[in-house]
Write a structure and sequence with these properties.
Elements: E1 12-19, H1 26-37, E2 41-43, E3 70-77, E4 97-105, H2 114-126, E5 134-140, H3 147-153, E6 159-161, E7 167-168, E8 173-174, H4 175-210, H5 226-230, H6 284-289, H7 294-318, H8 322-342, H9 347-368, H10 374-390, H11 393-417, H12 420-443, H13 450-467, H14 470-486, H15 489-494, H16 496-499, H17 503-522, H18 542-553, H19 564-584, H20 587-603, H21 607-610
Helix pairs in contact: 7-8, 7-9, 8-9, 9-10, 10-11, 11-12, 11-13, 13-14, 14-17, 14-19, 17-19, 19-20
InterPro entries: Trs120_TRAPPC9 (IPR013935), Trs120_TRAPPC9_N (IPR058563)
Domain Trs120/TRAPPC9 N-terminal: 8-364
Protein name: Trs120/TRAPPC9 N-terminal domain-containing protein
Amino acid sequence: MTRVRAWTRPAEFLVYVVPVGDDVPPPELASYMRLLQRHCVLPLRSLTRPGGYAAELSPFRGLSWTGSGSLRFRFVSVAAERIDMCNGEDVHASHRVMGVLGLCHCPSLAQSTGLQAAYVQFQASVRRFPALLVHKLFAFEHTFEDLRAVQEYERLDDLVMFPMDHELQGTGESTVSLHLQVVMNTLAVHIVMSLESAIRSVTSSLAVASNLTLTTDLDSAGREDLASVLLDVRVEPQVTHDAQCSPLVLSRDERNEGDSFHAVSTSDTRLSGSLFSSPSALSPLGAGTAALKPTRYTSRRKRQDARREKLLGDYNVLVSCISGAMHHYVIAIEMLREEERHSGGSPGDALWLAAALEGYVYCLYTESQDKFSAELVEKASEAVAFYANAGTTELESLFIENLGWYYTSVAMSTSMSMTGEAKMLESVWVKRLLWDVLERGMSLFPDLQSQRQVEFLIQTSRMLETAGHHRRVALFLHEAASLLLARNADAQSLSPTSATKRPQWRRDLEAALVLERMAAEQLGVQDLGIRKGEFLPWEFTSQYRKKWKKSMSATDGSTNIPDNAWLVIRFHVLRQLLTIAKMLGNALLVGTYCLQLLEMLVCNPLLRFVIDVKSWNGLQLTFTPKAAF
């Protein structure tokens, strides 16, 4: 049974991992990423509380250095993962880049100034970010032989050198893993303190600005320091939906360089190629006339304050202060509702209100402990509606996916804790909620990127498997595999031989093969190593065929066996497995799936009534992707 996936994204600091220097060997890069993933969750009780720390001055009143909270990191490797940008994603603090880690493989660098040059390259790259909580270059497998060079490197603040990796017998650790644990604990404390300092700086600046009669605004002052960027509320949904993909992590977050943020701007690289309105930002003309319109300026200030309250709730979640986060979210939701009503439901106000509701729902989720919460369902429904009003389908899809996993966990908890009629009624109700939210997620497909569609289908199949709907799992896995093939169908039709040689197309084929094999397993089509002459679950014995003929003769011939649709899906899964095997050029798989497919057609007379064999077109297997919903 699939394990229920926990909803942790709102509580994770987003950190990009970038290979630096000469080409880092892929095996080494993969091992470094696995090492980082082992330290992606750091309990607060394992961190060293800074000396002189004043809890009464902290903006995180619920922060406990000895409590059960944790700091979580989401490490994203730009060398191995696709980075998609969601429309309006910076409305969530967890979607903003908080740090960049460079990975350097010292043996692959030049002997002379290799590490120094790599450090300069890394520093030049991170300058493109306006502000980061942390940026470090990790230099692995350093020999420390040149003492003079080591002394020079020690003066570089953002360089961390790791020794050669040696296993420590009896501990399960190594010299590098222990060193990394100390480094990550230090960085975690630094992140918390930097975050506190930045928030205090903003709150004090706002307190001073509120006493001024001038229209001084923190956002339009042209500041690019850490405080202004962390609490930047200049996030609006795009007018034209066109999700961007950024292959280069460091080109993602360039900000405007002017002293003011124009109402219509094309300089933000996150929204390149489209115009978007920013009602929360004053134009230069508006800055000059705002004093003549105090009511309008006051309304704008309230909107900014409401959005900052939402971000303060996000940062409380990041440091495991759930009670403080709920306090900020409640204030933000009340203020944002008022702004959304006054603006007549503008996309920007709808987006921020939906994001605040999602943050509040996450806090309820952490406190519910897999128990059903009517308030959570109510607030989640509101959040979905406001995301729809804002037109941010990617954020809505991600939220729906997490909401689906919550319903799945509640269904599993109900099945284990209840008995009798109460268990049945509760289970039916929760599964109905699950189906409703999944149907809403699938209705967003026309506006989603193909990669996001595949991810949603795979997660949906996992939810259904956990809930016990095994055959429906095959339906979604088959559709996900079809999407992987369909997004490269044009290249395949133009040049069938060269298309499969492209690395991405090859990876898509291999992924589609895995998904279809999983779908076949759910439908009872056993894999290659299992078949040893015994009958498969979909094979009909002579006794079954007699029963089938008798049942057909007792009717008018139009009655269908309830398993009709699943027989057809088995047929299409096997046919697509044969298609993929042919594209991959795997003769063994082609022969095996061809025999299984022919055997299925021979042994299942029912398929003659539901499949037009002529449309199969022999073994040419013309592939036409078709939605299975």
